Amino acid sequence: MDDYYIHPTSIVNKSASIGHETKIWHFSHVRENVKIGKNVTIGQNVYIDKDVVIGNNCKIQNNVSIYKGVRIDSNVFIGPSVTFTNDLYPNVEEWSEDKIILTHIKSGVSIGANSTILCGISLNENALIGAGSVVTKDIPKNVIAFGNPAIIKKIKDI
User: Fold this and answer.
1) What is the spatial order of strands in the sheet that 116-117 belongs to?
2) In terms of Cα–Cα distance, which of 123, 82, 81 is closest to 102?
3) Using an 8 Å Cβ cutoff, are 117 and 84 in contact?
4) Across-strand partners of 6?
């Protein structure tokens, strides 16, 4: 008996590992070798590319795209329509998985709606990314950053 929920309209590859009490909602797609921790909520129409790792107690809102090369630690909030990239110089004629650049979202991070996270960076512990931001470089822990490009606006009160 499974101890997680997958909505019947979602596609979850058999090689994916889904943690206890995780919920995957309507029209989401979870690819090969994905690892999703326990007590994670995956919203409607979320795409999770192969080999992505997601920790425990995360909430991923509707219409999020998480591509290969992204690692998300525990206790992370990802707002609606956030997009992660994995190639700094995308080109349809020259695609190769060797071009994938790793991105690390560390524990306690919150990412506001409609943000874009460029590959090859780290969002460090407890950072908050404001809605609509374009994040192009590492963000230190315990700060609030937003804008295009995202810049540090405040140190968080923790």
Assistant:
1) 11-12, 29-30, 47-48, 65-66, 83-84, 116-117, 134-135
2) 123
3) yes
4) 24
**Biggest distance spanned by C-alpha atoms of the chain:** 48
d(CA 55, CA 62): 18
Query: In 39-113, where does DSSP find H-type helix?
Result: none
Contact 102, 114 (CB under 8 A): no
- The pTM (predicted TM-score) of the whole model is 0.94
Contact 23, 43 (CB under 8 A): no
pLDDT tens string 42-95: 999 999 999 999 999 999 999 999 999 999 999 999 999 999 998 888 777 777
Domains of the chain and CATH, by start = 5-155 (2.160.10.10)
How many Cβ atoms sit within 10 Å of the Cβ of residue 49? Answer: 20
Going 105 to 74 to 8 to 12, the CA torsion angle's sign is positive
Question: What count of Cα atoms within 13 Å lies in the side-chain half-sphere of residue 93?
Answer: 0
Rounded (10°) CA dihedral 84, 89, 93, 96: -70
